Amino acid sequence: MSSVCLNIPMKRESKSFTDSLHAILTASGRFDGSKPMLSGLSGMAFKLSVHEKLLPMSVTAYGLWGVEHKLAVDNLGVLTESDGGRTRHPTFRHYRQEAVRWIKGSLDRGVGVIYWIPEFGVIHGYDDEDRIFYIQDGRTPEDQVVLYDNLGLNVTDFWYCRLFGDKVDVPLEAMVLESMRLALQDWDTPHKTLPDTKIASGKLAYSFLRRGLEQGEFDEGGAAYILHSYSVSRREIADYLREVRGLWPELEEAYACYAGLIEAISVIPDSLKEQERGGGKRVNRTDIPLLADRLRKAERLEDEAMELFRAVSRNYPDLKRPTIPRWGTHSPR
Q: By C-alpha distance, which of 260, 255, 73 is closest to 179?
């Protein structure tokens, strides 16, 4: 019998995948920058998805995780692999057995594993005697415990794990250029979970968010969570661009766009109030007209920034993408 417990402090501040990724990569020496820097370089900060009813699942509904996360981690120069699927599939128990084996192998090598709890968290230890994994969700310092035999089972009908291997050095200019292209890919794709068109991505997500607020029939907690996550991610983008703006003149202008955007949406924190029942936040409905107006301004500024990204991208060959764009991606059912 063996056991491992790695020191991988995780704190929820960004998207849960970004929080988990930063915790694991910094603890294992694979990344030494700030969380906004990782969020920007990986492209995760630019992801925006909104359900028409402003459901809280919007924040993690930014596409197929296997694709989205691999592209994000690849741009950091880190080898990554994942597994996941639907727990209803008859082969699930066999995949779970394999996942237990390779998760333990990663922990034995001193590297944590990202795990869908939900949301995303970090598996940082195991104990063979009790047949359990130790998990950090970033909300409290206390560990959660999951039995080997219960790995993958949760309130959703799907499971997901991602592990990390060796790292190669990628020039900063190459990473920043690719991060802009990942941002454009998200901005230009209106639906990343087709055939479901109730969730909008990128530029269209702004319309879904404004319309959802103005129509009034939205999920209270979901609306607050989307707005909070959105405001945090846009501040991350501004912090990221401030660090890299010297690479191209257009990035200086893009930084100015996001600085203006941050000022426009500075009303969001004061528009979120504590719910009277059940805890959590809700949107102060009397602030909705102001929020909608500020979101329109934010969309214009972000669109301007994307055009600046596009101008930089045109000057360099892009061997990773086809010349014909795809206007949506399909999610397996």
A: 73
- The 3-class secondary structure across the chain, one letter per residue, is CCEEECCCCCCCCCCHHHHHHHHHHHHCCCCCCCHHHHHHHHCHHHCCEEECCCCHHHHHCCCCHHHHHHHHHHCCCEEEEEEEEECCCCCHHHHHHHHHHHHHHHHHCCCCEEEECCCEEEEEEEECCCCEEEEECCCCCCCEEEEHHHCCCCCCCEEEEEEEEEECCCCHHHHHHHHHHHHHHHHHCCEEEECCCCEEEHHHHHHHHHHHHHHCCCCHHHHHHHHHHHHHHHHHHHHHHHHHCCCCHHHHHHHHHHHHHHHHHHHHHHHEEECCCCCCEEECHHHHHHHHHHHHHHHHHHHHHHHHHHHHHCCCCCCCCCCCCCCEEECCC
Q: What is the pLDDT of residues 119-134, one digit of tens each?
A: 999 999 999 999 999 9
Q: How confident is the model at residue 333 (pLDDT cuts 50, 70, 90)?
A: very low
pTM over 0.90: yes
Q: What is the pLDDT of residues 179-211, one digit of tens each?
A: 999 999 999 999 999 999 999 999 999 999 999
- Maximum CA pair distance of the chain? 61
Contact of 87 with 237, CB cutoff 8 Å: no
Instruction: Determine how many CB atoms are found less than 10 A away from the CB of residue 259.
Output: 14
